[in-house]
Input
Amino acid sequence: MEPARIEVVGRGIEGEVEPGRRLGDVVKELGLRTVEYIPVVNGRVVTWEYMLRPGDRARLLPVVSGGAGCEICGEEAVYSYLGISLCRGHYIEYFEGKVLDTIREYSLIQPGEHVAVAVSGGKDSLSLLYLLNKYREDLGIEVTALLIDEGIKGYRDLTIEDFMRINRDLGVRYRVITYEEVFGHGLDEIIDIAREKGLPRYPCSYCGVFRRYLLNIGARIAGADVLATGHNLDDIVQTYVLNIVTNSLERILHLLPRTSGADHPLLVPRVKPFYRVLEMETTLYSVLMGLYPRFIECVYAPEALRNDVRNYVNELEERRPGTKYKIINSLEDLIKRYGPAVARIGSCRICGEPTSGDICRTCRYLDSLGLLENLLRWRSRIGLVEG
Output
């Protein structure tokens, strides 16, 4: 059986580990404190409960450096990056202030608006929901959680459980929309249908298109003025690089913290309050606030090119801290130089939803799968108007 490998970044510790062991136990045997590291396995942040598998590559990224004290109060630091060292309390203030500043700087949310938060049950979306709910009175907003259940067994059903657990304390109203009720099948079954028909698309292609489609509709059903997503700086950087790699240059100018919905009456504007915060920062915040869910990876994720891009960018960041900020700054400079892209948005001639073409991708994909009638029946049942 192939062993797993573990590396402690910055400590010169590397070695092999027998599969089937809990990562947290291995770390303690190395004489390390879990509070000082963020565990990453195969390029994805995990929890200390993660059970190592054959061939896994585990890397421990330092959160603090050598027991440094908080630069404000001198207490033990839980965060140290680019010369900033902060204790638990001051880090929480720093993180929340950074997000609130982003909301104000980019005019993401206005007082009086109803915000639908796209929640997956992962660390980023749970942290965003918690923070917006915490500051809803200060911001003067109303908050609703919106969940899309794609029907990925052993993944989405579990992350929804994590959301329900957290939301028992938050008490945020929510709505769940399932692929099953809309398309007649969950994603697992849709992928089986696609393979039987010999269709060439990856699972993530179907899932991404369908999920965005339903998030926009769900936000309208909730009566929301904006749709907030948990995309962090890492996500934006990965998409930027991915668009370069796939020669999708026209999409780069759409990578804004707020996407306008003014071009179509049915398009709800999307906002990204975590636009200027790193994934490691949202991870640490979620851990400190008791929001961090169990680590569950989507079974289809390894097939995505984004995984390779994520690993590449993370390796650059480790060798040259601050690289991710430089990349996002280059993106913003590019958008300032050429101006944000102005999409030509029309209405799908089949379902009436916003699209840049004659027929939206959701309708095209469903037609090829033989499932288009299911969508149209669902739309009719809930009273959605075409066009």
Notes: The first strand starts at residue 4 and ends at 8.
